[in-house]
Amino acid sequence: MKRLIGGIIGVFVIVSLVGCTAMGIGKKGAEEGLAQPGPTVTLATPMVKMSKKAKITIVGTGFTPGQEVSLLFTTMDGVQADIGYALKPKPVANERGAWVTTWSAGRYIARKLAKEGAYTITVTDSEYNTLAHTPVAFYKEKKKKKK
Question: What is the per-residue DSSP string for 93-113?
Fold first, then answer.
């Protein structure tokens, strides 16, 4: 009985290996079939003190080398605005698919387009298809009380 079970298991293993090889599943097939992680975007400082001189460093990874991207700021009421004019340098993925830029957000704060609270920065391709997004929060520095 033990030989029969051992034989059945042996046949099952061999058939499985042959089937996987025939279907192209192996080391090479598995590498080709793995999903690659999508683009990501992060902020060096996700909590930004409200100031007319506020600057936010934005970093993207996992993009196609040479890919130019647009960044959109979503206000509390859901309106999206392209902030490309206030980015230095223009975000373009390097040979490893990464980019870094700095957003001078002071104008948004001065015009009260960004108030205290949480917002979203969305990264899009040239046709404004969403590739990644990240939260950003603005806060007011609390005034110190005099004694």
Answer: --TTS-EEEEEE-HHHHHTTS
